[in-house]
Amino acid sequence: MKKRWIKPFAILVWLAIWFIAAIIINDSLKFPGPLETLKALFANIISGEGFFRTTLTSLFRILFGFAASAVLGLIFGVAAGLKKGFADFMEPLITVIKSTPVMSFIILAMIWFKFTTVPIIICFLMCFPIIYSNMREGISRTDSDLLAMAKLYKVKKSNIMRGIYLPSAKAYFYSAANICLGLGFKVTVAAEVLTSPDYGIGSRLYDAKIYLEPVEVFAWTLVILVLSYIMEQLLKLAFSEKRGRREEGAAINGN
Length: 255
Fold this sequence. Notes:
The chain has a single domain, classed as MetI-like fold, CATH 1.10.3720. 85% of the residues lie in helices and 0% in strands. α9 packs antiparallel against α10.
């Protein structure tokens, strides 16, 4: 029961600090408080469908880029974990993506692609190496005793993959996906700020910067935080231990 109340209590404490800081600064043009931020947020919500279209468009870009990186990162990561030669082949590409500044990718993508697709591409490029590397590590660390036992009992390769390899890498994938969701929101919105598509949270942040409206920046940032939290909770639910045990049992029993 005590643990359940830690997070709500922490949120209330930080909100109080934000409220007090706003009172001390006493300048909503520089540092809006929670009340001003909520007023701006509700004003955007009731203003019309623009808020929902903007929010859903950004969310679509984030989830599309994340899903593409998750699928390809899973496939390529498993292949690299099973075959060292393939891992060596992929290493230069992964190193380049990890080392190149995100701003360089955004500028190049703006030259090569439509502005509406740039945020999706950037989200994919930033998330793919993380998921790939974690999956490769998870597969390569699979218990050799389990693999030897499966080989001894002549378990099908497909069932070995579903019942041994993937459960072994599940925690690695979840960790990478959890990181990538938060990162996806950051880089996608950043790309939207630079490309300024017709609809997107980043576009609204850019407008707020142009018109010197920090309260709008706070309001849209609050939207990002809420969406990010909801997505993380859904991911956590999808990878819950009880659900995972049912899936693993089904995979192993299918030999």
